[in-house]
Amino acid sequence: MHCNQCGFVGPDNYNFCLSCRILLLIGKYLPEKMVEKSGRIQPRMPEEKITETHKDTMSVLEPKFLNVPVQTNDLVELAVEIWRMEQRLNKVMPLIPENQKALFENSIQKLKRYLNKNDIEIIDHTNQIFNEGRNLDIIAVEKDFEISKSIIKQTIEPTIMCKSHVVHKGKVIVLEKVSERSSEGQNV
Fold it and tell me: Between 55 and 171, whose confidence is greater?
């Protein structure tokens, strides 16, 4: 079937291809009449409109990552380093005198408040339930028979969000639940 708007030959029985139907729905390029009453096809859509429609359609289908300015990239790197500093401090906190602990914790909180003012959020995934759909880079997978659900054992790098969009994917180690059936199949 030919699209009545752009002339695209498609497998379905609609009068318009998907791109032209999307344009019709959003009202982006609407001629006065798509098809005359006599059934003749109107002149085809100009090539630049077809290209524009294709780009619009592809942009809707592509996964979304926020392109951020250079200053925001610097803030993202700063956020990762603040998270690392906090992890290192947590390891040595038992060795630090009580009066010094509050100073370190206060400094980390001030840095995090600065990031929050700039719409930057740090997400540590450690001990969260793991599912395949999460937007994470898996560095390693370890198997365990004793856990009830797969979890994220350790966060190597946190996920960084800017204005509710992922700008830095977290890197994690997953502790995967091993079912009894799969372990029996491996022993055979």
Answer: 171
**Can you give the residue range of the structural domain that contains 76?**
70-187
163: left (phi over 0), alpha (psi -120 to 50) or beta: left
Residue 173 located in a structural domain: yes
pTM of the model: 0.58
Under 8 Å between Cβ of 129 and 86:
no
Phi and psi (nearest 5°) for 183? -75, -35
pLDDT per residue as tens digits for the range 59-118? 665 555 556 565 778 899 999 999 999 999 999 999 989 888 999 999 999 999 999 998
- With a CB cutoff of 8 Å and minimum separation 6, the contacts of 154 are 126, 172, 173
C-alpha closest to that of 174 among 146, 147, 122, 139: 139
Is the CA virtual torsion 143, 146, 150, 156 positive or negative?
A: negative
Assigned domain for 2 exists = no
Backbone phi, psi, residue 59, to 5°: -65, -30
Is residue 120 located within the same domain as residue 179? yes
CA nearest to 141, candidates 172, 169, 168, 185: 172
> With 90 as the cut, is the pLDDT of residue 135 above it?
no
